[in-house]
């Protein structure tokens, strides 16, 4: 079946919803979501949304911009950081007026708390900048925007899985999607496609990401000839529940939580004497692994403790109720008296599809690809550089999702309908048919587990040439074996056996791209830490990595970082 809409937005998280709400009522817009809309991963965000409102103590957007640039280890494009931080106040008040129930101060203003890497006076001391709704901020913002989309009558194709982009002469013409409920493959014809498909943390064994985060949009853009940017920069959040990866929000440390090693010592005083437990995530993740390597894990094991016991029952219930529930359900412990076992967990991808400040996707020559947009974690406007600060992700989604929507409205009249090629779904149908017909072969789950193990072992918080090459050899082997993957379920409705096999193609290729990019960058910067090149090298590596698919494999090339206000300097906390 063929569907037709002016604007197709793939992904119903905050970036996709915010873009859709902006366009609705002016153009025919539809959302395509791999999951039921309110199950999108944006709802898992706990801690808050950053903005220099100054409700709790003096603050300014310039300080916020500085923290964003410094937190990104000066790989952040500073024009993007300025847009983000200047627009933060408007974005937060807009959400408040839509109905987001933020916590309040006694004076009735939006409450704010401290968060990692956010400071006053250009790094002098922590500042309370995170606006929050207890520890379920992403959930309430997404629900609010979802209700706004219902109010505006936006069409949503729920549980439709993106399988191909349709491009005609470097212009987008639509997409191909698979209806999970019926097994039918549909063609969507449009003038604009917005990719808001989120991250791809399922590349790793231990991750805070949901099972749907397999990088479909990012890989399909790459397969269509779009270069990908800064893919080596993968953020590991320091406090995932040990052995599970389920996130314990930075809000826990923002409220006063402390990390302790096996000797009970608050070790972040050694690694970041200024910000301590509120240092950026890359700094704390490396500190945890250093403690473990030096034998100071809990009982000599590979985790440390997060201590919230001193916060008290009332504060935990008011500010960290979801976290209290998580650990009670998953670990059977009570935060009032028990310490939480934590270790770093793959959390966020700084790299992705390169865009300008209005969400328009850029080709290898930095020219706009007509009709193709990206926003959110799958995009790389490079507002996060080499390491994202906590609470800047929700802000990124609503600021750049809105900007993409506004640019679409400006550009739509100048975009003609591009004719679809003959049978654009042909290749997708053939791929599904091959998987269903193959009688013997390895299972996708086996290959996926081997991939995740290799990426976790050789390309996580610490990296080196030897380990990266080991991982590359493993991924190349898995890519060859993938050609013989077989499935058992040949049914139509909700065939997870089939979808997992299809997702694995994205995951394997994105793993390969991460490894190639990481091996090439011979320095340490932000979340990319090379043990064999432990220093940041601005002379040779103050530049963005770009990788593009070619007939012969891939091509790596680079572009400069945009520097406007803050010259790179040593990153001390």
Based on the model shown, name its key terms.
20 strands; 8-stranded mixed beta sheet; 21% strand; 4-stranded antiparallel beta sheet; 573 residues; Methane Monooxygenase Hydroxylase, Chain G, domain 1; electron transport; alpha/beta; 16 helices; FAD/NAD-bd_sf; Flavocytochrome C3, Chain A, domain 1
CATH homology superfamily name of the domain at 426-538: Fumarate reductase/succinate dehydrogenase flavoprotein-like, C-terminal domain
Instruction: Tell me the helix content.
Output: 25-40%
Distance between the termini: 56 Å
- Which regions contain 5 or more consecutive residues with pLDDT less than 50? none
Mean pLDDT: 97
- What's the β-strand tally? 20
Beta-strand content estimate:
15-25%
Using the alpha-carbon principal axes, give the shape.
globular
Largest sheet: 8 strands, mixed
Count up the helices: 16
Gyration radius, in Å:
23 Å
By helix and strand content, what is the structural category?
alpha/beta
Q: Please give the CATH architecture of the domain at 426-538.
A: Up-down Bundle
CATH fold group of the domain at 426-538:
Methane Monooxygenase Hydroxylase, Chain G, domain 1
Give the CATH level 1 class of the domain at 426-538: Mainly Alpha
